[in-house]
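no rush on this but wanted to send it before i forget. what follows is a protein written twice so to speak, once as letters and once as structure tokens for the fold. mainly i need to know what kind of three dimensional shape the backbone takes. thanks a lot i owe you, the record is right below.
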Amino acid sequence: MAETVLIIEDNYVMLKVWQTELERAGYRVLTSNNSRLGMAKAKEKLPDIILIDSVLPDLDGFDVCKRLKTDPKTAEIPAIIMSNFDNADDHRNAMNIGASAYLIKYNTMPERLIDMIKYYTYLEKGDEPPPRMPSGKLIDMEQRKGDLLAKAGIISPNHLKEALKKVGLTGITLPQALITTEAVTGTLKDQVLEFFYGADYVDLSQYLLDKDAVNLVDADFARHFSVIPMRFDEEKLVVAMSDPMDVEIEEDLRTRLKRPIKMVYAPEADIQKAIAIYYGSSLPMEEVMAEIERAKKDGKLDKEEDIMVGNTPVAKLIDTVMTQAIAMKSSDIHFEPRSEGMLVRFRIDGVLHDMQVIPKEAIAPVVSRIKIISNLDITERRRPQDGRIEMKIREKKIDFRVSTTPVALGEKVVLRILDKSVALYGISELGLRSAEEKKFLRMLRQPDGMILVTGPTGSGKTTTLYAALNYLKSSETNIISLEDPVEFTIDGINQIPINSKVDLTFATALRSVLRQDPDIIMIGEIRDQETAELGIQAALTGHLVLGTLHTRNAPGAVSRLVDMGVPPYLLASTLIGVIAQRLIRKVCDNCAEIYRASPDADLPEDLMVLKTMDLYRGTGCDFCRQMGYHGRIGVFEFMEISNKIKKLIVTGADTMELTELARSEGMLTLREDATRLVKEGVTTWEEMVTVI
């Protein structure tokens, strides 16, 4: 039986590379991205060896190792602490708490790690350890790491090829080339930099910061230098900064605070979001409200010239609300007129939260100000209007899609937040199982045919399609997308905004696109027979077509297209695969606890097995706003179109028959995939039955 390795690591890139290489070497790999669930998994699964990152949310790697070594169940399991700090004190501390080894991550290639694992697992069994593998011919470290990223599916082979070409032409480093060619973007970019250079990356959204630590540095200093204290590590203060190589700031902090500093790396935008949350906005809401009251007394609240100016109390209020919403990772802001005033609500992880009430005297100025900055008609109050706002926070551009509609007590305004950095997820960041990721990549490598993504509004279809386009784009392909509207602009892709007012529908745009010599076409939504037939024709004539449909599950997409009038024989010859998906809330890592469902819990019949298992739930904390959930993850249903399924489609089989055959060929339904996440402690059964 293969030996089992448990990896506790919060950097997705590191985790994925190590997992891929260890599985290639024949190991069974368990993973966890946080300390408490990692320890729970260690006690439940009893792996042969544990790899622990030294910097983790909540407990750090040293605390995790210490607790595992003092627990009788896990005390004898070899543990290796992996760190980016080549520090004698940390090395000595690791040995003192019982770690088998202390390795520097960015210097440790997979061959060396496998060597160490073999050595310590053999020692544990009392066997003679095997001889060390010879180092062989020296390989360029950067290119070797680039190959590892491609093997792990973090980047595509095309991305690596383009980046290496840029290295040869310009002389820049491979990590710089991967970033400039947009092979890696967003949080993935920062994790890749840690993988190459070793500056410990932290995802601040996964940490509950120690308020005593935060209060050691004043807000103005934190904002100006983009630093924020996170927690105490014995006598050291752990500080996140956007440039951990800036020794002057580190020395300044050490002198100011008269204590040793441990620097970690976080993106500047994430640090500024954390500053907004922990220090408050630069202008507190109470101060804004006080200014509005003064303006009301002076009779200036409703003056049009005041509403137009950007430094008035109303303008400051709206800026504060928008900044706060971005910092809290909201997807929407709702301004709702009520009898007592205007209620402001944020949608976070798919759920609306009441935030504050704006005095009713400010309702009209607030709506007018939003209309002005989104180029809407402030005199029109009887009809719905749509607009757009662009806001810049530091170097990051955020778009807001604005919608107003008349209601009984005035006008309701909703702002949809479009964070452009979120659009460029890699396929490896979507949360797919290894088998599903391989299926998806296999579909995308087909030269022609149609791939469909289905699900309701807000289920993450656009994110999945953008991840696919980001994987496929290269200097050798012409990619054209048809979108209504274009939510995010992506370099290297020709994006066409649908505009029905000028008769630019999906169907008319698709006819034009076919004369633009495309290799890959993305159809934002297949709404009617004409669009469906043109998409099928494009797939038949040598194009790879990606599109979305609104259906409950993957097999239902076939029935929907047949109902639209697409002949089954054409569908069978062009369809490559269908992906159905939903988004489900994750248990908050910071307050997660293990429990058993009570015998009288009202579980659905297919989930009764959960009563015999250890389950996870969040108890509620400041980090998750007492909800017990933080963040969301995708639930997927992949139906690859095999020859048997093609034959069934041609016969006009219904959704049930297609589902049965697809399941017999290995497809997990949405409910089965969600049940897996419940068993793994990622979500709860209550959340699952609400969404699926």
Q: What stands out?
A: The CA atoms of residues 197 and 556 lie 47 Å apart. Confidence is low (pLDDT under 50) at residues 131-139. The first strand starts at residue 4 and ends at 8. The radius of gyration is 27 Å.
